[in-house]
Structures are given as C-alpha cells and as structure tokens.
C-alpha cells in the first residue's frame, strides 16, 4: 500500500463526522496546509486549526498528500424557531444544554435573554483536540482561542470539574473566529456547505445591521423625519430575512410615519404586517395616538387571516384628570398626532 493510501485511510478513520458548518477539501498536487489556510481564512497561522481538525498531529504527525480529503472548519448557522431557547439549542447544536452560555456569547447575546423566532444565530465549530504531554486548559485556550483566561470556559464546556488534562484526553474547543475569504466561501459553496448552513450567515448579517439601524429609525420618527423613516424602514425590510421582533419594530415605525404623513391606506397595510409579526400586539390608547389606534382597528377588517389586535379601553376623562399618580413605567411620547 502506498504512503498516500495509508495517510488518507488514517485521516478518514480518525476524523470525526463533519459538522454542518464544515466542508471538505481534496488536497491538490503541490498544496500545503499553510497555502490552504491562507486561501480559505486569509491567515497562514490558521494552519494549526486544519492540523487539529484533521488529526494530522496524531502520533508523529501526518503529512498531507494529493487526494487526501480534509475537513475545513467553519461556523454553522441556524434559524431560530418558536419555542427554542439557548439551552435547547445548545443541547441540539453543541451536544449539551450546559453549553448554552457559550452559544449565547458567540452571538453577542446574554444567556438569560432568549433568542427570538426567525433570528439566525452563529453556531461554533466544535474542534476536537487530543491532549498531548504538558497540555492543560490554559495551553489549549491560548493555542486555539488566543486567551489563557478562557481556560475556565473550556473546563466548563467539557465538564472537566477542574481536573487536569491527561495525555489522550479529547477536548472540544468551540471556535467562532473562522471567517472565510471570498475564495473560501466559493469553496464552501461548491461543496454545498453554505446550503447546509442555512445561507452562510446572510440572514444573520442582515439582522445585525437591522439592530444597529433600529435606534436610528426610531430617532427619525421621534424627530419628525417621516419620509426618511419610511425610506430607512423600506431599505431594512429589503436587506434580508429579519427576526419577527425586528419586523414588528420596523412595521410599528412605518405605521407611525404613515399616520403622520396622512397615508391612511399605507398605515393600515403596515399595521397588518405589524400584527402578523407580533400576534400578541395590544393597542394602548395611552401609549399610541388615536390615529394609530384607528388605523390598526381599520386594518383588522382588511386582514381576516391576522388575529385582531387587542385594544385597551381608554380611561374616562374624569378619572384621568383626577389621577395624580405617575405611571409605573415611562411611556414614550405619542406619535402620529392626536
């Protein structure tokens, strides 16, 4: 048997099943790991990720040869469905519910604030590393995560309970800094990885951009820049697939802007979309102007499929005037005119 056959067979035997975010690459003649790392990630130092992901450091180490099939690590993506939490997602996507903190932090979120329906989240790549002589969570954290102070995270992620690593122990290292180059994305696409990874994060990028623009959209409405608000909201809606929470906020601002512009029909249409994104919507006449309540009430007759928005009855004028107790929570100023 040739050396190439032995190396290929061994690599395939000891390489774990490919995660949803990873994709295969067949080594071509003259290629080195450093060249592949630079093409895929744009950084030569990512060679060590390829070495660990393909167990090329097993024993005395394996050299790559033409025809060898390598696993190229990359992050995965998942679209959140109704009822999913960080805990349930971590159990499904990362292998254990106690890894929910890592999943939340990988998405710039707080573990106690659950993801929203329609949100696209980033799923870390679980790098399998076999501990060698002298390895500890400190050295592994520094080698793959660039920070020794993340050793506690590796300990918790692998449920080590503070125990020292022994030679041969398998450690899972959650990697998120695996941004692909344009060429890397093309290689992933040709391998079908982008389809498995639910759009390769395009929805997530659109959702992140929307999060940065939502405060600006609200500011446009508050400042009376209604035409600018409509233009911004329309641009956000066309940027990609947004979460239901984001859609509800955008359509709410559109309703407010259209009401202020006396575009009653457009306001009613936007309210239908608002209610579809937020079925639990309650129209508070203290929070919202009468024009907005009226537009959304009229919209109820237009969209038979959408659940009618609940309307909180207005308090009698005498009771309102007599009450001197401030509301328990601050309310934003009504928009759209009274």
Description:
The protein is built from 15 helices and 8 strands. It has helices at about 5-15, 35-40, 45-55, 85-95, 100-105, 135-145, 150-155, 180-190, 195, 200-220, 225-235, 245-260, 265-275, 290-300, 315-320; strands at about 25, 70, 75-80, 120-125, 125-130, 170-175, 280-285, 310. Strand 7 (about 280-285), helix 14 and strand 8 (about 310) form a beta-alpha-beta unit. The chain is mostly helical and about 350 residues long. The termini are far apart. The protein is elongated. The strands form 4 sheets. It has a two-stranded antiparallel sheet with strand order 1-2. The chain has a two-stranded antiparallel sheet with strand order 3-4. Among the domains are: about 1-75 and about 180-200, no CATH class; about 205-305, Serine Threonine Protein Phosphatase 5, Tetratricopeptide repeat, CATH 1.25.40. Helix content is about 45%, strand content about 10%. The longest helix is centred in the middle third of the chain and has 21 residues, at about 200-220.
């Amino acid at each position: 048997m040739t050396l190439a056959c032995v190396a290929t067979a061994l690599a395939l035997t000891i390489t774990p099943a490919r995660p949803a975010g990873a994709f295969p690459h067949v080594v071509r003649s003259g290629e080195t790991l450093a060249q592949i790392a630079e093409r895929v990630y744009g950084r030569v130092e990512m060679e060590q990720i390829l070495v660990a992901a393909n167990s090329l450091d097993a024993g005395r180490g394996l050299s790559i040869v033409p025809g060898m099939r390598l696993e190229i690590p990359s992050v995965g993506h998942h679209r959140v469905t109704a009822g999913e939490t960080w805990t349930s997602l971590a159990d499904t996507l990362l292998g254990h519910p106690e890894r929910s903190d890592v999943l939340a932090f990988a998405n710039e979120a707080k573990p106690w604030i659950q993801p929203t329906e329609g949100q696209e989240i980033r799923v870390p790549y679980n790098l399998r590393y076999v501990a060698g002589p002298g390895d500890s969570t400190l050295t592994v954290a520094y080698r793959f995560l660039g920070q020794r102070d993340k050793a506690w995270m590796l300990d918790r992620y692998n449920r080590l309970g503070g125990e020292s690593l022994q030679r041969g122990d398998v450690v899972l290292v959650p990697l998120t800094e695996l941004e692909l180059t344009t060429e890397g994305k093309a290689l992933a696409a040709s391998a079908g990885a982008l389809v498995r990874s639910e759009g390769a994060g395009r929805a997530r990028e659109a959702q992140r951009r929307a999060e940065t623009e939502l405060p600006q959209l609200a500011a446009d409405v508050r400042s009376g820049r209604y035409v600018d608000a409509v233009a911004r909201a329309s641009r956000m809606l066309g940027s990609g697939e947004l979460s239901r929470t984001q859609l509800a906020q955008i359509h709410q601002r559109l309703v407010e802007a259209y009401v202020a512009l006396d575009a009653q029909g457009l306001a009613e249409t936007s309210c239908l979309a608002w209610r579809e994104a937020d079925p639990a919507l309650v129209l508070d006449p203290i929070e919202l102007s009468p024009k907005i309540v009226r537009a959304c009430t009229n919209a109820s007759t237009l969209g038979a499929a959408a659940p009618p928005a609940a309307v909180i009855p207005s308090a009698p004028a005498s009771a309102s005037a007599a009450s001197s107790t401030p509301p328990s929570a601050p309310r934003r100023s009504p928009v759209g005119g009274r």
